[in-house]
């Protein structure tokens, strides 16, 4: 079976600065992978480059059999890629409901509003509020919820647990397991591998713009010490 | 005769009305500028020229094709909007990645070029455009006679401002626009064609200016420089209201128009500068403008 997302020898630049030095990774349909790595190693850049936000890039990105390198940014979503940025990207001038319905539907099979509000009951109570009046945890929920509506096949999820309380992190873990049960493919970027090991099937370790290790979650224990060193935690 | 602070009521109300009319134009024009600046981050110096183009389109549609005011009110904004779309696609869209100064310089040059061409073609003296038949005459309001056309201008501009406000604040397209104003890259990553949205926004701004131009044609003369005279005041309005604030632009437009009218009654010599005095005071106390968000 061909992977849903396949990235090979991906290079990317911010202006003159060469940040990705040949990233290779693949994600099978329905799989959740997690990219670990310290700050500044290129994790966020990898997601932004796959999505097509960073345009100064070279290499191959294939998604659902389609070559994504020439696809303009606004077509990435149509191809089935959903993006949840690290800073969450909740719009202050939009209500919660408007934030929720902003991304257009790209395919059938997305969650309905009812399903989403069952999954995120807090958002229902606050649907008329200004988006940025929500707490950090609620904003993260909203950032994920709005992508789930669209019917995308693969979510690029950038550090969803950053700065959040343990109980909220647990909720996000529940949501990711629910998504997995629905067959969603997830590319997760995390520094918190205690969280990630509960949701991911496979790990990549990133260092200086490259994937330096790849292992299934079952092998995490034997990598634990190395990861502690690599992540500096 | 009734007087207020030694000024005849008639004169006061008369100037208030003039202020309201001027305010209507300020509001329509600063609204377009605010919408364009909000999303494109371009200070559209060609706005006055687009207003002038609207008035000229009305005049030429009448003279060339025999199409009356009501056709012009719809067609002129469409034509000038299309012109705006072409300008955005061909030129402005290449400048977004550069310093905002380039957009300003480009639109300034564009304004000079358009006005220069029209001066060359039509001379700088104004040409009359008659009030449409339906809106001729005056109504007696009891305390004054109101020329019907002037009342129409106030109502038409209010309605136009309300429609634009509604589209931006209450519709899906408006939600895209507001979101793209905050974070265009993310909105595009969600699958929305932001470059097209930018083109539409510039076209909308230009069309609003042209709409104001058609409204203005029967009141002021249609002349190549009619926009130049107005646009400086309109920029002051935008600065007072706060760059990029929609409601701020509209409210400030009417408010400053009225302030100008009232100054004409009480201290006529200051009426030409009162808006700039207000601008200076606002900039000192609230640099982001009355409705702008403090950065």
UniProtKB/TrEMBL annotation, chain A:
Classification via InterPro entries: AAA+_ATPase (IPR003593), ABC_transporter-like_ATP-bd (IPR003439), ABC_transporter-like_CS (IPR017871), BCAA_Transport_ATP-bd_LivF (IPR052156), P-loop_NTPase (IPR027417)
Domain ABC transporter intervals: 5-233
Membrane keyword on record: no
BP term (GO), one: L-amino acid transport
Keyword line: Amino-acid transport, ATP-binding, Nucleotide-binding, Transport
Domain of life: Bacteria
Example of a GO MF term: ATP hydrolysis activity
Entry keyword Transport: yes
Record family assignment: Belongs to the ABC transporter superfamily.
Name of protein: ABC transporter ATP-binding protein
Lineage, highest ranks first: Bacteria, Pseudomonadati, Pseudomonadota, Alphaproteobacteria, Rhodobacterales
TrEMBL record, chain B:
GO molecular function: transmembrane transporter activity
GO CC list: plasma membrane
Transport found in the keyword field: yes
Annotated GO biological process: amino acid transport
Membrane topology: Multi-pass membrane protein
Transmembrane segments: 12-35, 42-62, 68-92, 101-122, 142-168, 196-219, 231-254, 266-285
Any one Pfam family match given in the protein's UniProt record, by short name: BPD_transp_2
Location relative to the cell: Cell membrane
Keyword Protein biosynthesis part of the UniProt annotation: no
Alphabetical keyword list: Amino-acid transport, Cell membrane, Membrane, Transmembrane, Transmembrane helix, Transport
Predominant place of localization: membrane
Similarity section: Belongs to the binding-protein-dependent transport system permease family. LivHM subfamily.
PANTHER family: ABC TRANSPORTER ATP-BINDING PROTEIN, BRANCHED-CHAIN AMINO ACID TRANSPORT SYSTEM PERMEASE PROTEIN LIVH
Protein name as annotated: Branched-chain amino acid ABC transporter permease
Organism whose genome encodes this protein: Paenirhodobacter populi
Taxonomic path: Bacteria, Pseudomonadati, Pseudomonadota, Alphaproteobacteria, Rhodobacterales
